[in-house]
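Lab meeting, item 3. Inverse folding demo.
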């Protein structure tokens, strides 16, 4: 570690902390800098920070004239839920509320952003949600997995998730 002569024991980006000596069964005793140290240099107790933040959600939608099938994935690609919504302004509001209930929305992939999904894509964009136009699944995928609204909506979400 490089140090300035007047900042011995400090790194370039962190604060100067007192050196503590701690040991465990796995690590031999030695000097350790800890951000848990109080002003006197003693550790009173360990503090844990629990994160209760919900995972970011990626949505996928297979759009049709009468209804839209939607899925929600987390960032690891786990399918959280899927539902159908009417292709109406009320259905658009229900779809966004459903996704938001699952977690913060990162972006939504919409298959068939032609005339059937134009209103939905416009509504999502007005709500500040990033919309990604997704091509329909390849014929080989359809032959292997079949044609199903759930499969198409999930494929749209996975395409968005993969970048």
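The presenter then showed the designed sequence:
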């Amino acid at each position: 570690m490089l140090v300035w002569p007047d900042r011995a024991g400090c790194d370039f980006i962190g604060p100067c902390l007192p050196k503590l000596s701690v040991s465990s069964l796995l690590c031999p005793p030695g000097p350790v800098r800890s951000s848990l140290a109080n002003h006197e240099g003693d550790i009173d107790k360990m503090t844990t920070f629990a994160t209760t933040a919900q995972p970011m959600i990626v949505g996928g939608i297979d759009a049709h004239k009468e209804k839209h099938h939607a899925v929600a994935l987390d960032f690891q690609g786990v399918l959280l839920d899927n539902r159908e919504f009417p292709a109406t302004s009320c259905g658009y509001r229900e779809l966004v509320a459903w996704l938001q209930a699952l977690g913060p929305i990162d972006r939504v992939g919409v298959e068939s952003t032609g005339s059937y999904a134009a209103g939905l894509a416009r509504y999502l964009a007005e709500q500040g949600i990033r919309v990604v136009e997704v091509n329909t699944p390849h014929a080989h995928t359809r032959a292997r997995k079949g044609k199903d609204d759930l499969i198409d909506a999930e494929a749209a979400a996975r395409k968005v998730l993969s970048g």
